[in-house]
Design goal:
Layout (H helix, E strand, L loop, with lengths): L2 H7 L24 H5 L18 H16 L14 H10 L23 H11 L11 E5 L2 H20 L4 E5 L4 H9 L3 E5 L9 H7 L6 E6 L11 H11 L4 E6 L3 H4 L11 H4 L3 E5 L11 E5 L1 H5 L5 E2 L4 E2 L9 H13 L1 H26 L3 E3 L5 E5 L3 H6 L3 E5 L3 E7 L6 H14 L33
Parallel strand pairs: 2-3, 2-4, 4-5, 5-6
Antiparallel strand pairs: 1-7, 6-7, 8-9, 10-11, 11-13, 12-13
């Protein structure tokens, strides 16, 4: 047997249906693996079918779509809004014939070039609509529609580094809380920046006493502030961070806000001041679009000031008419169109109603878990209820994310998005009660769980070992 023929024989026949046959017959289709049949997320291989006629490529896609529609019904462990409200957009998109055009939002959306196949005019209107909700004054902001929250964090670190270099001729040290999204740590590595990871308290907030201890005043500081940590939904205390800055007086400071989930809904609540640039004086902010706003593909928003943009490297791209401030070159024009569509189809009133319902339902879930005697926690301003990890069956059934905390043990969380109704929460609570171990008692740290209506400054702090 030739090496090429052996290679062909190592694949199931159904997976190779589109490949020209080698110079000898292939064996019968392989038996599907157990992991594939069980639906294990680590080993789902859609080409592994049982013996028989292979499905057409359209049938495979239909099967995939059916599986996704079924799975999303009970998905409560990740921050995606499954109520997308985009049917009318796609009806217009098909009817308009725009799907037959290749669009690209390459370049600076605020400077026109000879490339016309973009949606820059709509992107700019999206930025102009949202800028006041984040406290940016007229003519003092710059923003664009990103590819994701991580894309926004990437620009926050890049813009911040260039801004601080321009003022100090030194690369900054990045300071970030341990429970801030992992993308920030990876991006610091990508940009070859020194990273100091600050311990967090039991509820997930950055420990500002530790920040004060390790902040080097002789080097510029790029502080990444989490408004909604990934697992526990904590907001770093910006006032306490400002106190540290005033005390240590570093030679230059840049504050970037990672508000991927919370940045979507907080502007439409009574807690909007938390992400108001005019009040909190941060330098840039990143928000996800596929979380609270409910898009069917990844996108986001990024805002900074005109002063920050003015200090970027002036890499001129003559055929795009001027410097291109974004790291990403080609960018989605459809994302900007969808954002613009939602603004006009729903508006701020709809977003405000969604935010209110989400936070009310999170309080409802926390109260019901308390009534059951089940260990659970909820941070102020948060739609994320984290709890003692339930059985593997419930973790799988409700798509829950897990984490391990040295103080609280094995955890899971429920992120109460728009599709997570009280009926779905009741279904989860009933299933949890049926599997709840007899005699389950409160954990020791239950007593420091803050009232969700209080401010982060009132949250109890428990020291962790320092790790940088």
């Amino acid at each position: 047997v030739t090496p090429l023929a052996s290679w062909f024989q190592s694949f199931p026949a159904t997976a190779m249906a589109h490949v020209p046959a080698p110079d000898r017959a292939l064996p019968a289709a392989a038996e599907p693996c157990t992991a594939c049949l069980s639906g294990s997320p680590a080993r789902q291989l859609p080409h592994m079918e049982s013996k028989g006629a292979a499905p057409s490529f359209k049938e495979r896609l239909d099967q995939y779509a059916d599986g996704i529609r079924q799975a999303k019904v009970t998905s409560i462990g990740y921050p995606g809004n499954e109520v997308t409200h985009l049917r009318s957009f796609y009806e217009w998109y098909l009817a308009s014939g725009l799907f037959e055009s290749q669009l690209n939002n390459v370049g600076n959306p605020h400077l026109a070039s000879n490339y016309k196949l973009n949606s820059h005019q709509f992107e700019n209107e999206v930025i102009d609509f949202f800028a006041p909700f984040y406290g940016f004054g007229r003519d003092n902001y710059w923003g664009f529609v990103t590819g994701s929250g991580t894309d926004g964090n990437q620009h926050g670190l890049y813009f911040g580094t260039r801004y601080l270099l321009s003022h100090t001729k030194q690369k900054p040290v990045v300071y970030v809380g341990r429970e801030t999204h992992y993308s920030v740590k990876k991006l610091a590595d990508v940009h070859n920046l020194e990273l100091r990871i600050i311990p967090s308290n039991d509820m997930g907030q950055m420990d500002t006493a530790e920040l004060s201890r390790v902040l080097d005043p002789l080097r510029p500081a790029l502080i990444v502030i989490a408004i909604g940590t990934t697992f526990k939904g904590a907001c770093d205390d910006q006032d306490a961070i400002d106190d540290v800055i005033r005390e240590k007086r570093p030679i230059a400071v840049y504050r970037h806000i990672d508000a991927a989930l919370f940045g979507g809904y907080l502007p439409f609540t009574e807690h909007a001041s938390l992400i108001n640039h005019a009040i909190k004086k941060y330098d840039s902010i990143a928000i996800s679009g596929h979380k609270f706003f409910g898009f069917d593909d990844q996108c986001g928003l990024f805002f900074t000031t005109q002063d920050v943009v003015a200090h970027l490297n002036p890499f001129r791209v003559e055929y795009l008419h001027n410097a291109v401030p974004t790291i990403s070159c080609s960018r989605s024009a459809l994302a900007a169109l969808k954002f613009w569509w939602k603004i006009h189809e729903q508006g701020a009133a709809h977003m405000r109603a969604d935010a209110t319902t989400m936070l009310d339902n999170a309080l409802y879930l926390k109260a019901e878990l308390d009534a059951m005697g089940y260990p659970a926690w909820l941070n102020p301003y948060s739609n994320t209820v984290f709890l003692q990890r339930p059985s593997p069956e419930l973790m799988h059934r409700f798509g829950l994310a897990g984490d391990v905390d040295a103080r609280l043990g094995d955890l899971a969380h429920v992120i109460v998005m728009q599709h997570v109704t009280r009926e779905l929460l009741d279904e989860f609570l009933e299933a949890l009660a049926d599997t709840m171990p007899a005699g389950l008692s409160r954990l020791r740290l239950m007593s420091v769980t803050p009232d969700p209506r209080e401010t982060p400054a009132e949250t109890a702090v428990i020291q962790q070992p320092t790790s940088y």
